[in-house]
Amino acid sequence: MFHTVQNKMYHVEILPPKQDTEQLEADLESFSKKYNRVINSGYCACITDNAMGLLGFQGSEIIDVMGLDVNPEKVVIHLNTFHTKEDLHNILDTCKSRGIKYLLIISGDGSDRLPRLKPEDVNAMDVESVTSVELLKYIKDCCPDDFVLGVAFNPYEPPNHEFEKMQRKIDAGASFIITQPIVEKNDRVDELLKKYPHIPVIVDAWMNKKLQILSEAVGYKIPDDETFDPVVTLKKLHRDYPQCGFYLSLLSFKTQFDLLPGIWP
Question: Are 264 and 7 within 8 A, CB to CB?
Fold first, then answer.
């Protein structure tokens, strides 16, 4: 993942169509256009997995069904714990068959509509519920040479808890880290970089003008700011974190995407 910094490759978030969409063909076409635009621009397409607990189609499934080209260095699939064991292995098998190697393993946001992996599904009999740690270890054990596995870091959680969990993720086989979205220099992210200088860290830059959505996403109150400019913020984050890659959340393809080539220093 260090290559994304060297080659100025943004990680651009793309949300798959929701399962309850009333315009599936149009949504699939829109997804495909965004995906191809990201790839052809030299960036990484990062495809979410039931973001915020809303049931959506799985990224690897759409890539397969739509026949989209895969450059192994330009695709990251999110994978959370809200799946059946059968579905988990179907996703892993599809990723392997399409040459997708980067997976971001997260616990995920649940809902009553989503199943969840049981401890026995991932050979984790000493826990009450499956988190990203157990899922990561299971994938590492069953597919040791197939994937490069990353994990999330949440700077809004109590630091002792979050850093203890991060160490367990590293011990389980994580080899890159993507932070939760931030809008300014962050002490917890600074500490993360000091603790793990040899692990690639991708800073998540919030690219939507509505900070209230960010508050809901991270479960932490972020003051509303009507003057918030995502592009200006991204430029500041580049100055603050020159050693990092950058993940762009909720980027507007209509108004912001074309500005990206001129932002990375």
Answer: no
Residue 149 Cα to chain centre, angstroms: 11
Give the side-chain half-sphere CA count within 13 A for 46: 22
* CATH number of 2-262, picked from 3.20.20.220, 3.40.50.2300, 3.20.20.80, 1.10.472.90: 3.20.20.220
Distances (CA, A) of 190 to 34, 186, 193, 243, 263: 32, 6, 5, 11, 22
Work out the burial of residue 100: count CB atoms within 10 Å of its CB; fewer than 13 is exposed, 13-18 middle, 19 or more buried: buried
The pLDDT tens digits for 143-173 are 999 999 999 999 999 999 999 999 999 999 9
- Which of 141, 74, 143, 131 has the alpha carbon at shortest distance from 105? 131
pTM above 0.90, yes or no: yes
